[in-house]
Amino acid sequence: MDGREFRNAMGRFATGVTIITAPEQEGGVHGMTANAFVSISLDPKLVMISIDNRANMLETIRKADKFGVSFLREEQQPISMHFANQKPMEEEIEFAYMDNIPYIPNSLASVVCDVHEMIVAGDHTLFIGKVLDTKVEDGDPLLFYQGQYRAIEEQQ
């Protein structure tokens, strides 16, 4: 199987859309769009993100030893597109903070973490984060399926 076939198969798994953030370093807050997020454990509270080994965010998280994850609501698609380098936003993005770690305000949920463990796995690095704090709000999720943004449609 070639890489495109594998990518197409993985695109059949519907995911939420997240923004990964890291505390301010040179140049301010860093963020990236990602859908590779997993809740791992309730005790201790652990989550995992997967970062491409070529991404600038990899070294940023390594240096900070902390990261945030914000689960986007459907109206936040422009924020996802901005951090995916698809379409820059005209207005500056505001961040909120928990434990001095930035997150996207008004997202469905946000978690902030200390890096608990890093595992190099192929062309990505997995960061397992120990959750320090969370924030939860109401709304409908922004979804990603077959390379496109989607929204939940109400069944009638």
TrEMBL record:
Residue ranges of domain Flavin reductase like in the record: 10-151
Record's keyword terms, sorted: Oxidoreductase
GO molecular function, one term: oxidoreductase activity
Signal sequence segment: none
UniProt-listed SUPFAM superfamilies: FMN-binding split barrel
Keyword Transmembrane helix: no
Alphabetized InterPro entries for the sequence: Flavin_Rdtase-like_dom, NADH-dep_flavin_reductase, Split_barrel_FMN-bd
EC numbers, comma separated: 1.-.-.-
Gene3D superfamilies recorded: Electron Transport, Fmn-binding Protein, Chain A
Record has Oxidoreductase as a keyword: yes
PANTHER family in UniProt: FLAVIN REDUCTASE, FMN REDUCTASE (NADH) RUTF
Protein name, entry field: Flavin reductase family protein
